[in-house]
Fold these 3 entries.
Entry 1:
Amino acid sequence: MDRAEHPDRRALLAGGLAVGAIALTGCSARSTAPWAAAGLAQEVRPVTPAAAFARLMDGNRRWVSGHLHHPDRDPDRREFVAQAQEPFGSVLSCIDSRVPPELLFDTGLGDLYVMRTGGQAVGPVVTGSVEYGPMTSGTPLIVVLGHQRCGAVEAAYKSFRDHKPLPGNLQAIARALRPAYERARREGGADPVDTMARAQVRLTAADLRSNRDLAPLVRKRTLAVVAAYYSLDTGTVEVLAGAPSRS
C-alpha cells in the first residue's frame, strides 16, 4: 500500500502502544474472566502467531462439535473492553450471512478485528483496515477466510465467462477477483467456482504477506497471514496456506 495513504501512521502506532498499555493494566486489575465461574480457565491473550492460530482453531473445533464456550460475551466483558481493545487476530472474510467469524471461531467481544467484503475483495481501504491491528497493537495473526458456495465469486466467474459486466458497483468486486478467475482457468477442476474461491483466498493472503508494511513483521515471525476456507456443510475451517509453526 502506498505510504501516502497513511499520513497518520506514526500517530496510529503511538496510539496503539497506549491502547496496549491500558489493556494490560486492565487485565492485571481483573483477575478472573466472567465465564470463569462456569468452570472455564481464564484465557490469556495470545501474543504469538502460533498461539493465536491455535486459539482460533480450537474455537472452530468447538463450533463444529457444538460444545461452545461463548467466551467474552457478557456485560462484564463489554465494560472491560469499553475503553481499550487488544484483539489477538484479524479476519478478512466474505459478507456472506452464513460465515460470521466471531461465531465460527467461538470468540467474543474484543477478540477479533473483522473485515468483510464480497469475495474478500480488497482495495486500499480494506488493506489499511487489515494492517491496523498488526501495525498499531501487535495483533499476531491475520486470517483470510473464503468459503464454500461463495455468491460473489460465482457472480464474478459467470461475468467473466459470459462477458457480461455486473450491475453498478458489483463490477468493482468482479474486477478485484479477476486474478483469481485467471488462476482458476489455468488450474481447472470439477468445480471452477470453488477453484476460484480458493484461489482468491490464496492470492489475497499472499499479497498481504508480502506487502511493504506487513512483510517485515512476517519475516520476524511476529505475524502470520493464513489462507483458510470454510465449509458451509460441515462448519470446518480448512487451512490452505500460511499456518504458523510453534517453533
Entry 2:
Amino acid sequence: MSTRWKPTFAIKATFAVHAAAAVGCVLAPSLWPWALGMLVINHAIITTAGLLPRTTLLGPNLTSLPDDAVARREVAITIDDGPDPEVTPRVLDLLDAANAKATFFCIGWRARDNPALCREIVARGHRIENHGDSHSKVFAFFGPGRMKADIAAAQATFADITGQTPRYFRATAGLRNPFLDAVLHKLDLKLASWTRRSYDTRCGDAETVFRRLSRDLGPGDILLLHDGHAARTPDGQPVILAVLPRLITALRQHSLNPVTLPDATS
C-alpha cells in the first residue's frame, strides 16, 4: 500500500510501556518489579482485546456496514469456514431461490481441495473473502511472519482460483493479536468481523440460531453463519440450511437487502 501503517493508541501505548520498562531497568535496576508490573498489566489488556472479536483497540475492524449502505437498507450475510462440498452447493441454491447475495469467508486449503466450488460461488454473484489458509485454532498466537505467510497463501489461492483478489480478512473465531493490523496493511486487506453471530458451529437448534441473528435486525448489520463446521439439527441437517431461508424472509419483511461486503462498502 502507498500509505504508512498507523498503529492504534493501544498499540502505541504498548510500544511506550515496553520502552519505558527497558529504559527504567537500565537506569534504575531496583525498579524492575514496577517495570514487570507495567508489562503484566499491558499484556493483560492487549490479550483481552485480542479475545474480543468486535473491538477496535488493535486496529480498524468492520463490525457494521457504512452509512451509505445503511441508507440503502443493506445487510451482509457472511458465511465462514467453507467451501464445504456437501453444504455449500445447497446454500448457493437457497440464496439463488431468494435472489440474495452473500460473502463467503473461505479457508485456503479447503479452496484448493474444491476449486470448482469456489468458482461456482463467484459465478453466482457472491464474493469470496479471506479466512486464512490453515484456519489454525492457534492463529492468535502466530508471530507476524507466520501470520503474514498464512494469510498471503490464502490470498494467492483465491486470486488464482477465482480471478478476484479478496479485500477482507476474518480471523479464526475472530481472535487475533497486535501483529495482525500491520500484517493486513501490508497485504492490502481490511479486518471484518460482524454485528452479531449465531454460534451455529456449536448450536444445532435452528430456532435459537435464528433468534440470535434476527434480534434487533436492521440496516447495516453483518450476520455470521457457517457452511463449514456447521452444527447439525436433531434430524441431522446442517443448521444453516434450516435457518437461511427463514432469515432471508425476515430480511425481506424488514425491507432489508442482502448484498456482498464489497458491494456494500464500495
Entry 3:
Amino acid sequence: MWGSGFYRVVFFFPQVLAVAVVGVLFQAVYRPDADGVINGVLARFGVEPVGWLIEPDLALWSIIAVMVWQAVGFYVVLFSAGMAAIPKDYFEAAALDGAGRIRLFFSITLPLLRDTVQVGWIYLGIAAFDGFALVQVLAGDKGEPDGATTILPITIYNTAFSYQKVGYASAMGVALFFLTVTFAVLTLRTTRRERVEL
C-alpha cells in the first residue's frame, strides 16, 4: 500500500511517548472549558463545553479512548508484521481461483494471523488490568469523579499509601498478578489449535 511506512510511523508515534506525557497532553485536550482542544472545536459549532473528565458517565470512557489511541500503534506494527509474513503465493493462487477480497481475508489472512491475534488478545487483556499511570495522571488517585475511574491498581495504591495497609495491598497485588496470568493462560488454551504450516 502506498505510503504505508508513513502511516506506520504516525500510528506508532503515541507508543513512544511516556504515559505521563500522554496524560498531560490529554489534560489539555479534555479541559472542561472552551480552552480545551475538543471543547474549543465544539464551541465553534455552538455546542456547550463537555466535562470529559469531570462527569462520572464520561470520565472512564474518555480515559479508555486515550488508552486506545496510545496503544493502537503497537497493534498496527504487530499485525503488519504478521501480514508481511504470509506468502503472497497464497493470495495469488486464491485470486486465480476467483476469490474476492472478503473471501481472501476470511480464508487466508485471518487463519494465518491466528497466532498474532492470540498475542494481541493477551496484550490487550494485560493492558486492561493495568492503566494505573494514565488514570493517575488524568483523574488522580481518588477515582475522581465520584469513584467513576477507580480501577484495581488505583485501589491497591490507595490501600498501601493512603490507608497504610501495605500487607493487604501486597495481597491484592499478588491477586492481580494471578488474575492476569489466569487470563493469559485461558486465552492461550481457548484459542489453541493445530498449527498452520506455511
